[in-house]
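Model: You mentioned two targets. I'll fold them one after the other.
Researcher: Yes, keep them separate.
Model: Target one:
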Amino acid sequence: MVKTVFAALTASLLLSGCQTYQSQTMRTRQSEDQLIQQENQRRMAGRLETLEMEIGRVSRELDMLQQTLDSRYSALERKTEQDKRETVSQLSTKVEKLLKQTAPAAPAPAASASQYSGSGYEHVVQPGETLSAIAKAYDVTTKVIIQANRIKDPNRLSVGQKLFIPE
């Protein structure tokens, strides 16, 4: 019976030793897993920091590019405005020369005041105006304007030409 007790006691000690060994082995594996996870977290944190720094660098580059574009756009707008003014100036000069070359002879003197009650209006012909439109604006007939100004060809009015419009 002693042998049986001894055998049971020995088996019990051996089993408890195995459990202790297994427990230590499991703790060691858990500790290793934790270390691996901590290392992975450190790596991820390093990658994240690198990405944040890269985002900051790209953001600064974009800001500098935006400033460059804004500056170039402003310069282009100024140049465009300057070119417009120069073009308008050149065209105005050419138009003035052409108008002087094609200007009609001085308009015929207005009819005598006795013929048209002595009062009326002076009208300067504007681009696109017709004799009928002028007559309508002053509520007179085209015939009255033609006679008052001794117009030979009513279809040929000149821009800047002065007309007497009787009342």
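Model: Target two:
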Amino acid sequence: MLQDEGRVQFFYSHNKKGQIVKETIHSATILYEYNKEGKLTTRNSETHKIKYEYSKNKLLIRKIVSGKDAETTTYTYE
């Protein structure tokens, strides 16, 4: 838990690999999921779901945001 002068509270839950699986800020909760390589695959909150897709080379190639302000970002590498 972290506090900023008693106003903001953050709570984190981790899995056995030390990755954050749950983050709570005040009463809002964000859940995280990872693939077998340990890469972040999903980030879910009350207002957004973000999905991360990776190439065969394990590089981030796409971020898909659904919910409020939906958008897709595609990444390319040279």
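Researcher: Noted. Anything on target two?
Model: The radius of gyration is 15 Å.
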